[in-house]
Specification:
This is Acid phosphatase/vanadium-dependent haloperoxidase-related protein. Keywords: Membrane, Transmembrane, Transmembrane helix. The chain crosses the membrane at residues 20-41. 17% of the residues are buried. The protein has a domain at 20-45 and 59-92. The chain has five helices and no strands. Helix 2 runs antiparallel to helix 4 (60-76) and helix 4 packs antiparallel against helix 5 (81-92). The chain has helices spanning 9-15, 19-43, 49-52, 60-76, 81-92.
Length: 93
């Protein structure tokens, strides 16, 4: 692929070093996993739908956008417009 287009090998490898993206995915996976094990602890049954379903606590949506906003703040600074945008999104969610 053409490197000027931004779709080369460097793009895919840099995606795996994207701290805010990785933070958001880890927070989502962690929240969903906690729901899965909480359901087992409370109801003594395994419910695989908890791994991908929405609703319940902890909120995977809130965890995802909060982790994204925090990671953007740590990476780019808490005074910039990118963090402000991520913070507003997190507050809405």
């Amino acid at each position: 692929m053409d490197e000027a287009s931004g779709f080369g090998a460097t793009t895919s490898s840099s995606m795996f070093r994207n701290f805010p993206l990785i933070s958001a995915f880890v927070a989502f996976a962690l929240a969903q996993s906690i729901k899965f094990f909480t359901t087992w602890y409370k109801e003594r049954r395994w419910d695989p739908k908890q791994l991908v379903g929405s609703g319940g606590m902890p909120s995977s949506h809130s965890a995802t956008v909060t982790a994204l906003a925090a990671a953007v703040g740590f990476q780019d600074g808490f005074g910039g417009p990118l963090f402000a945008t991520a913070l507003v999104l997190a507050c809405i969610v």
